[in-house]
Design goal:
The chain has 406 residues and is mainly α. 48% of the residues lie in helices and 4% in strands.
């Protein structure tokens, strides 16, 4: 097992690669080569950028449209299914026609990594679509009650949410679950993992400068970029925003980046996490360019651990927020917060502790969700608050109490 207490943000360090075992040569040694990372995520070959992650940007933009559709009484099951899973291997159903007719499909990348992929978990998302279209949308303006779908409004009338018969706000279950099953899983369990980076002849090709078809990059470089794109793919042109991606990620979209920004922000749970992750992405890509795969994997470990913490932070955050809203008598917002917590708990199975293990296993996640958090109308707060056994303490313990949260 790796000791991650020793893993520092390596992009802040200078790496000296020496081929000599004699440290007493003083000034007689030739110049010692070093790996120097750029200040921003900027890489070129023969004057041409080698960075490409347009497919990730496409899927993230598709997700934004799907989120809007899951907030519309007009959405049908077939329309939602088309946006999620496409048709005959091609994306379809989006108002922005540029998002249609591509091989980029959200559903094909949901719960699909070799480490954490699960057909049964992906099926949950299909169930949410069916429930929404069959039960929530037709009762959009009905007053919800225990056991009946419809709308529920906060006491001051400022917020209205549509819930199913179990009191769940399905768009929140879907999208908070997608944070783990889609964006996080593709980054930490797929594109920056050796299972993807080292597949086939990619090590030899990268060592020998064999490019990917007529592209200016090697396959390994591109796979790392695709992992980068699942986090930063909607943040804008790297030439314009590269200098601030670490210190001030913009939080674009509705998935992982949105909450990554919240964790990093002043007053957030862990200011500085943005720079740590950005630096690790830069140094990992630099390591690939230089053929240093141990250094690459050390950076991947940092990214896996830090991004996984975002899910842990917000699972706990929304559980606590649910309790606060119940105490304040705001049952509508309590249902909303618990729905968000449910989705983040679902996402826990897609985390990676740097040793290719989730912070919470699929089996444990399903047990908690199906046993304690299914019926929102009748949930017992002790499932959340019990010392050592409630969900808040269970999540903290799963992270080894490294989360900076009360």
């Amino acid at each position: 097992m790796k000791n991650h207490l020793l893993l520092l943000p390596l992009a802040l360090m200078t790496f000296t690669l020496s081929t000599s075992e004699d440290d007493d040569n003083d000034n007689n040694d030739p110049a010692v080569p070093t790996i120097q990372a750029p200040d921003t995520y900027s890489f070129e070959r023969n004057g041409e950028s080698t960075i490409s992650y347009s497919g990730q940007t496409t899927r993230l933009e598709q997700a934004d449209e799907l989120y809007a559709a899951l907030n519309s009484a007009e959405s049908t099951a077939s329309a939602l299914e088309l946006m999620f899973n496409g048709s005959d291997g091609s994306s379809a159903g989006f108002a922005n026609d540029l998002l249609n007719g591509t091989s980029k499909i959200i559903g094909s990348k949901t719960a699909s990594s070799t480490l954490a992929g699960s057909a049964t978990t992906k099926a949950r998302f299909g169930d949410y679509i069916t429930d929404f279209a069959s039960n929530v949308a037709p009762n959009w303006n009905m007053d919800a009650s225990a056991g009946m779908p419809g709308s529920i409004t906060s006491p001051d009338g400022s917020s209205t949410y549509q819930i199913n018969a179990l009191g769940q706000e399905l768009d929140q279950l879907f999208f908070k679950g997608l944070i783990g099953a889609f964006t996080l899983d593709q980054i930490v369990n797929n594109y920056i993992h050796p299972n993807q980076l080292d597949s086939g002849t990619r090590i030899d090709d990268n060592d020998n400068g064999v490019l990917s078809g007529d592209k200016p990059y090697t396959d390994m470089e591109h796979k790392w970029d695709e992992g980068f794109g699942y986090l930063y793919g909607q943040e804008g042109d790297l030439d314009d925003v590269g200098a601030t991606l670490g210190s001030a990620p913009a939080g674009s979209g509705n998935l992982l980046m949105k909450y990554f920004k919240k964790v990093n922000a002043e007053g957030g749970y862990e200011p500085g996490i943005g720079q740590t992750v950005y630096d690790a992405f830069i140094m990992g890509r630099t390591a690939i360019v230089n053929g240093d795969y141990a250094l690459r994997d050390a950076q991947a470990d940092i990214i896996q651990v830090e991004l996984s913490k975002v899910v842990g932070y917000y699972a706990i955050h929304y559980l606590n927020d649910y309790l606060a809203k119940v105490e304040a008598g705001n049952i509508a917002k309590a249902h909303h917060s618990l729905s968000e917590a449910y989705g983040f708990i679902l996402s826990l199975q897609f985390t990676n502790n740097g040793n290719d293990e989730p912070y919470m296993s699929k089996g444990d996640v399903e047990y908690f969700l199906d046993t304690y958090f299914a019926d929102f109308h009748n949930i017992n707060p002790v499932y959340i608050t019990a010392q050592g056994q409630g969900m808040v303490d269970v999540i903290k313990a799963a992270y080894g109490n490294t989360l900076m949260i009360d």
